[in-house]
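User: structure tokens for this one?
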Amino acid sequence: MKQVLIVGICVLLIITIVAFGIRPVTEPLPNIQIAVYTGSGASYESIYGIGASLKRFNDLKIKLVNEEDILGSKLTDCQVLMVPGGKERAIREGLCREGCRNIEKFVSSGGGYVGIGAGAALPTLGSGEFISDIQLINATVAEIPISASGELVSCMAIAKGGNRLLPFSIYLHKGPAFNQGDNPYLPPYVILARFGEPANNEQVEESTPGKDAIIATQFGTGRVLLFSPQPEITPGLQTLLAQGVRWSAGKSTPQTAASGPEYSWEGIFGMNALQPQP
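Assistant:
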């Protein structure tokens, strides 16, 4: 009789939760220490956008670093390094070969790397003009010939193994177009989104549709996530950026981790990251 009573109470509790939309209490997300590069070549607009986008998420803690910090191996208390948009050559020259090697060691040992714009071009194999000093991902880059700053372009997220395509708009400022590289020691990257049809710019129309825009890979025991366009200055994409940072740190929310494979749009960002946000 006692067991029947307990079962009845449990059933009643479940019905109440479903009926009134009550959600069980969840554990708070673990804090993630993010090093945001602010040294030579980094764009103030991109740095500010990263801070403004991530400050609303209590688990994401930002620490500003420059080339001297990276040369001095001061990333040890951080889980993620974010390199913003700006001027890729100036960033590379500021870090020099030693700084690039320190970033490789950081990611290989389990750290995350999130690159945006110039910061996304930095860890690739380079282009026909140069060979990069830091190679975290098996990708080459080609410059997108766009002269205007802050152009809104369309992208297509590739979810569910390519069976579901999610269109969205995002700002682009001279970000690279990615192509699969041929380094035999690095795995092929995963394509998360491609450029779609242009929003309003003919130069973008001629150069970007179908090219890879957002990509990811594993390097050693770390994770690499690269955005050619700029989610940090695009209204409404704060959650997209935050989810990407969490994934690169290996600390995705349980809901996102359960959404799909580890290296997939839904497994990194979840299926709701493109929904309008307050």
